[in-house]
Amino acid sequence: MSTNKTDTGNYRKINLVGQSLKEQFEELGKLILVAQSGIDIQIETDQENLISIAPLKAMNAKLKCFMSKNQQNIWCLKLLNNKKGKEV
After folding, report:
1. Cα 44 from Cα 66, distance rounded (Å)
2. Which of 26, 31, 46, 85 has its CA 20 to 30 A from that of 61?
3. Is 63 part of any domain?
4. What pTM did the predictor assign?
5. 60 burial class (0-12, 13-18, 19+ CB within 10 angstroms)?
6. Can you tell me the distance from the alpha carbon of 70 to that of 60, in angstroms, rounded to the nearest whole number?
7. Count of domains for the chain
8. Rounded distance, CA 48 to CA 35, Å?
9. Dist CA 72 CA 88 (whole Å)
């Protein structure tokens, strides 16, 4: 499994495009743990099913979750730790 990870600005950017839903779901679980530690995560995905599941998992982990879609039909999911006191 190949996952592109880069740190850009305030986010750790993860590209999951092209991976199976199962792989992306497993990676989401790992990334939620990273976000809980205080690192903001930005995930790019082409799986709409992952986008439908992510907010519930983020809410259970007490994280903020933001979603958007670009012109290439790639979803962007941002996970933020609520305890940071940031305004978004």
Report:
1. 12
2. 46
3. yes
4. 0.81
5. exposed
6. 27
7. 1
8. 21
9. 25
- Residue 11 located in a structural domain: yes
- The amino acid that residue 69 corresponds to is K
Residues in contact with 46: Cβ distance below 8 Å, sequence separation at least 6, in sequence order? 16, 17, 18, 73, 74, 75
Residue 88 resides in a domain: no
CATH number for position 75 = 3.30.110.40
As averages over each run of 10 residues, the pLDDT of the chain (88 residues) reads: 59 94 96 94 95 94 94 93 61
Q: What is the reported pLDDT for 1?
A: 42
Element (H, E) at 39: none
Domain extent, residue 54, equals: 4-81
User: Residue 34 belongs to what H/E stretch?
Assistant: helix 21-36
Does residue 31 sit within a domain?
yes
Which residues, 6 or more positions from 62, have their beta carbon under 8 angstroms from its beta carbon? 36, 82, 83
